Amino acid sequence: MDELVTGDAVVLGLRPARLPSRALATAIDLSVAGAAYLMVSVGIVLSAGSLDEAAVAALAVASFLLVLVGGPIAVETLSHGRSLGKLACGLRVVRDDGGPIRFRHALVRGAMGVVEILFSVGVVACVASLTSARGRRIGDVFAGTLVVRERVPTSYMEAVPPPPPWLVGRFAELDLSAVPDDLWLAIRQYLTRMGQLDAGVGRSMAERLAGDLAARTGTPAPQAVPAGAYLAAVVNERQSRDARRAFGRALPTAGAPGGMGTPGGLGSAVGSPALPLAPPAVPPGGSSSSPSSPPPAPPVAPAPGAGAPPPPTTGFVPPA
Description:
The chain is mostly helical and 320 residues long.
């Protein structure tokens, strides 16, 4: 089984694509881009009759850069890693931590693809993909990306457990720009495999990851929040930001219909362990209810004769 295995011997729910499927997807993309480039070149030749040779050469170079280089970059950026060939083969380009790619990832892959695929007729890309443990070419290594297969059985998909509802949205102002992808990957691996770890080992690992995450964000982790709950809440915040950036809307929050923590939501995915997270502590002598919530109304006794419940039947009949 060609799944992504890290140095900690933890299997991640991403299945890297191999050379045959990637070569087929690249051939489809190159066919479409070549047809578009041919049409643009014919249009330039027909409309450049009054131009000199230097202008025609400049238009040819510009059309090459825009169609064969800029076209794939724009398509991968706008489709979040799914070009026409990858869509036909069921592939997608993702970051090393499984998140959606951005413009800088597509730019590095496209720039390196000019040398790997166009100039060397795909020889460099094939050799690099064959020698890589995860089938990556040089552009993927420099961009920090990975081509994965999307059409996999649902039993192989590992969902990150959702945070408790009282932590959803609490870290909306947290700066996550300085957190590296390898730390996100380690946190995701811990959250998806925490149910298989020893209690002491899992607790120490969660505290270490929470300390590293707090150091990267510049904001200390809350003292009253368990380390596992803190990690799950921050990962949920990052996924919500990626969803808003990619699709214009956030992930469903916990407790919402079809959301995380409800049947059919993200928290009920196959293989996702339950987070042993406790609710916020109640202060001594206080109440778990919100200070702004009104006190419960006292029970109202029913009026005599107005629907009062009948006395219980004991089976004893008094003498006449």
